[in-house]
Write a structure and sequence with these properties.
It is a single chain. By secondary structure, this protein is mainly alpha-helical. The chain folds into two domains: 2-57; 76-310, MetI-like (MetI-like fold), CATH 1.10.3720.10. It is 75% helix and 1% strand. The protein is built from 13 helices and two strands, in the order αββαααααααααααα. The protein has helices at 2-57, 74-80, 83-114, 121-134, 138-148, 153-160, 176-186, 189-200, 204-212, 217-245, 249-254, 268-278, 282-310, and strands spanning 60-61, 69-70. It has a two-stranded antiparallel ribbon with strand order 1-2. Helix 4 packs antiparallel against helix 8 and helix 10 (217-245) packs antiparallel against helix 13 (282-310). The longest helix has 56 residues, at 2-57. The chain is globular, with a radius of gyration of 28 Å.
Length: 315
């Protein structure tokens, strides 16, 4: 009987322990949700709410002055027939698929130089990262007009070597987009820091073994550095393509908000802005925003699918 009583006491203690543990877990979950509540409220109010409102407005005719009028797929049908939109996509694709590879190539090259163990590494990292902080700012975009203007720094340097008839690069339809691509390449600091961190994670023993086998620097770079760095290259590629598709400030400031000259810098986001806040076609602009989201999502999905053919992980 005594043993039976002890078993009952033990069972009751376990039951009480489980009940107390459940209460403690609920209490911890409640505390966690309370700490997360500012983020959850911000997510609902400033992200999910505006996204749902934009999705609804994309099916309406809305100019901020009158209530929205339901159009169904009217805005999306109009997008297919808009020649300026097609031109803005060509400009944006050129900017993305030329600027991003050049930016990553410059970032990787400088990361390889910095990985050699230069003195004052922290100073160099700060200096090279600074353009990434300032590159999208209004001040730098205005400075870019002074650098590539008709009487700017570039033409002043060319005049010193005898070239006196150089064009105003910003104001010429054939070169204006190129100056914005150069500005994008100049903001290489963020991918450079990530590349540098990736290079520091490659075990030195791989290079030592390859060197003992007679592999030169180029061979070691192709056979060791690039394969082991492919996850970092892929990470930078995805981020920078997404950022490049959303570029706006540079084109807005450099072109004065017009996308000129001759729409040569009419980025998709700039055209979206003009439709929304100049022409007050909010419904049309909302449809453009969702198309941009689909484009970025499609390219991101394609990159993830192609990554299985060229990205190598340690496992």
């Amino acid at each position: 009987m005594s043993s039976l009583g002890e078993l009952r006491v033990l069972a009751q203690d376990r039951k009480n322990a489980r009940a107390g543990g459940a209460k403690g877990t609920r209490r911890e979950n409640l505390a966690g949700y309370l700490f997360l509540s500012p983020w959850i409220v911000g997510m609902l109010v400033f992200t999910i709410g505006p996204m749902l409102a934009s999705l609804y407005l994309s099916f309406t005719k809305y100019n901020l002055l009158k209530p929205p009028q339901w159009l169904g797929l009217g805005n999306y049908t109009a997008l297919l027939q808009d020649p300026v939109l097609r031109h803005s996509l060509r400009v944006t694709f050129t900017y993305v698929f030329v600027g991003v590879p050049l930016q990553l190539a410059v970032a990787l090259g400088l990361a390889l130089l910095l990985d050699r163990g230069l003195r004052g590494m922290a100073f160099y990292r700060s200096v090279f990262y600074l353009p990434s902080l300032l590159g999208g700012s209004v001040a730098v975009a205005i400075l870019w007009r002074q650098v590539f203007g008709k009487n700017g720094i570039v033409n002043g340097a060319l005049a010193l070597v005898g070239v006196h008839d150089a064009p105003g690069w910003i104001g010429h339809p054939d070169y204006a987009l190129g100056t914005l691509i150069i500005l994008h390449v100049w903001t290489f600091g963020s991918p450079l820091i990530i590349f540098l961190a990736g290079l520091r994670q490659i075990p030195e023993m791989y290079y030592e073994a390859a060197e003992m086998d007679g592999a030169g620097k180029l061979r070691r770079f192709r056979a060791i550095t690039i394969p082991l760095l492919t996850p970092i290259i892929f990470f930078n590629l995805v981020l920078q393509i997404i950022f490049a598709f959303q570029s706006f400030t540079q084109a807005y400031i450099v072109s004065g908000g017009t996308g000129g000259p001759s729409d040569s810098t009419m980025f998709y986001t700039l055209y979206l802005y003009r439709k929304a806040f100049v022409d007050l076609q909010m419904g049309y602009a909302s449809a453009m925003a969702w198309v941009l989201l689909l484009i970025i999502g499609a390219f991101t999905a394609l990159m993830f699918w192609f990554s299985k053919f060229w990205v190598f992980y340690d496992d």
